[in-house]
Amino acid sequence: MSANWYLVLSALLFSVGAGGVLVRRSPLVILLCLELMLNSSNLALITFSRNIGNADGQIFALVVMVVAAAEVVVGLGLIVAMYRRRLALDVDESRGLRG
Amino acid sequence: MEQVAFFAGAIGALGGAIAVILLRNPFYSVLALVVHLFSLAGLFLLLHAEFLAAAQVVVYAGAVMVLYVFVAAYVGGIEEPLWDAIPGQRILAPLVAGALFIELSIAILASGLESLGSEGPTIPLGFGSPEAIGKSLLEDFLIPFEAASMLLLIAAVGAVVLAARRPPLDSPDVEEPSILNPPEGGV
Fold first, then answer.
1. Radius of gyration from C-alpha coordinates of chain B
2. DSSP 8-state symbol, B114
3. To the nearest whole angstrom, how far is the Cα of A58 from the nearest Cα of chain B?
């Protein structure tokens, strides 16, 4: 399989994730869609790493995974805090950043 | 054989991704994301990224998804209102996503990079194995590696602080004990 196939698949997955972020309103599902986008970029990084024959791109993908894990932890902490304070779990409801 | 594996992984990844954004129940969305991650791990194997495929399954589909499942179960089903917050959002968003896909595809296919049409060079034995990844992590990329560990530590502390028990917004007078303001006389 040529690298183009993988890259187009990665672009397709990224677009699906971006469309999900635009259309959904539950913060939990928006976090899931962010995961989709991060994973599609990982696929592109690994494809280029294979295509160049240098494994350094895989380190990039590993760092993306770490950043995604950190983002998930903070995002889920925010969702739990919103739920505990009985705020509406809807990104359009909670637009203000007043503490 | 490789084509069959690629298309199986691609269909799984794409189907999982579409199911994530179409299913109404967040719990099912999380399960669809697990399918997506497993399919991607298969694609990583095809690209000779053995360590990353294992990390994807263990870290993502294992640990991170368990967190999601817990939070989805804790928060419960979130009812999304049917009206659009921005008029036409439900029609415009897929159009924007489609435009993004077409643009990215043009950028990839018209890039003129000849190597993208090939499978890539023959790679040495052990490419992407835990040994090779560990070696380059600790030799060439030591500082990013340490920065990543600091980032994870900060994220863990931040999550504990964020999710600490606080009084609800409508009754600000009641002080509940929390990590930030512990009760008198110790815990």
1. 23
2. G
3. 7
Where does A1-99 have alpha helices with state H? 3-23, 27-52, 56-84
Task: Verify whether the Cβ–Cβ distance B158 to A85 is below 8 Å.
Answer: no
User: Is residue B19 within 8 angstroms of chain A, CB to CB?
Assistant: no
Closest partner residue to A11 (CB to CB) among B36, B101, B119 is B101
| CB environment B104-123: b (16+ within 10 A), e (fewer) | bbeebeeeeeeebeeebeee
Distance in angstroms (rounded) separating the CA atoms of residues B26 and A27 = 10
Per-window interface: A 36-75 vs B, CB < 8 A:
36, 39, 42-43, 46-47, 49-53, 55-56, 58-59, 61-63, 65-74
Token pair for residue B34?
């697990």
ipTM: 0.90
N- to C-terminal Cα separation, chain A: 52
The pTM for the full model equals 0.86
Question: 3-state class of B187 per DSSP?
Answer: coil
- Coil/strand/helix, residue B81: coil
pLDDT of residue B187: 46
Distance (Å, whole) CA B21 – CA A15 = 11
Beta carbons of A24 and B158 less than 8 Å apart? no
How far apart CA B115 and CA B134 sit, in angstroms, is 27
**pLDDT, tens digit (0-9, with 9 covering 90-100), for A30-88:** 999 999 999 999 999 999 999 888 888 899 999 999 999 999 999 998 888 888 877 77
| DSSP structure string for B119-163 | ------TTTT-HHHHHHHHHHTSHHHHHHHHHHHHHHHHHHHHHT
Token readout for B94 is 């897929």
User: Are the C-beta atoms of A45 and A22 separated by less than 8 Å?
Assistant: no
